[in-house]
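Hello forum,

I keep getting stuck at the same step: I have a sequence, I want structure tokens, and every attempt I make locally crashes halfway through. Rather than fight my setup again tonight, could one of you with a working pipeline run this one for me? It's a single chain of 411 residues.
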Amino acid sequence: MRIGPAVTESAGDDPKLNRTLGLPLVTLYGLGNILGAGIYVLVGKVAGFAGSSTTLAFLIAMATAAVTALSYMELAGRYPVSASVSVYLHRAFGKRRLSTMIGLTMVGGGVASAAALAQGFAGYLNSLVPIPTAVAAVGLLVVLGAIAVKGIGESATTAAALTGLEVLGLVLVIWFGRKAFGHIEVASLLRIDPAVGLGGVFAGAFLAFYAFIGFEDMVNVAEEAKNPRRTMPLAILFALLASTVLYLLVVVVSTTVVAPAELAGSDAPLTLVFERSGASHGVFLSLIGMIAAMNGVIVQIIMGSRILYGLASEGWIHHRFGRVHGSYQTPVTATLVVVAAMIVGAAVLPLVSLAQLTSLLVLIIFTLVNAALIVIKRRHREHGGYIDVPAPIPYLGVMLCLGTLVFQVFN
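Reply #2:
Ran it on my machine without issues. Output:
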């Protein structure tokens, strides 16, 4: 991997969005999205598919995500724009309709993801107060939608603050469950549970993949980042490394302390793990689980609205989505449309279906992103980006993403 000098924006640039985000804030923004997207909400559901092979399922998902993350790192440095994937595909294939369709697919994935997270929030809330899932999920989306309209600074700062609490919750789970590490063998983590077989492991990996998505959403705030050609690739790298370490430690503790079948039946899985580890304040972890879901939702709202804004800026969808509020400096119309779609999704589909739909859409997008980088690297060997990944990386990304898709669709 080549890392080159950073390229700053020229003084003559006059971006419509407000450039306020530095490397630490973008990294925390992305890390919060990755952590909120899966480990608090879906670790139990993955265990339901993969059984004692849950750690292996997470490792498979991690490998698939990591390879594609490298492709995103180079592309984010080459083209630091809000429409991200749509622009990448247009630079590679020159097909406006394809770029527009994939951009809208990304918005659809974000909508499904946020709806799933809103239901996850409701699950943790219900472990404290009996409130109907639909009411809790819709209420959360309305409140966070208002924050996202107010401004990117408020949204990203909120996300960064919530990320700190998310990390604290995972560290507490690891700390209280640390005795689990004395009762496992590394080789056992890589064995296939005979009760679920290879099919169960890959079904679990497909769902676990949802837990690693989020780095691709980071690139959609490129036009609001300082020195984006350097900031975006490094933020993706740091966020993915941190989330991978935390995930693997938490999964090992969770599946050792609580039987996978019991874990699968819980709407607040990490609270259950926390309590079984000997901690006396499970309510505290339920609150953090709610915060994690909130963080994931607010990032998805930002992502979806910025993609619509970017597509409108390119002239590929109605110009109304590209309008920026004079005071808030946010795309208000795009934000309201995205939030409305999330509310519908949260009210109609169950959590696991929403997560599986998100994984399916994101894997399709990842396949095309890797393919786009293959073409771009052939046509434009020299570029002003910060990172240049080895040529085989996007080929490997295509194979891993397609393999996972094919197995899931035809299994």
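The radius of gyration is 20 Å. If your local run keeps crashing, start a new thread with the error log.
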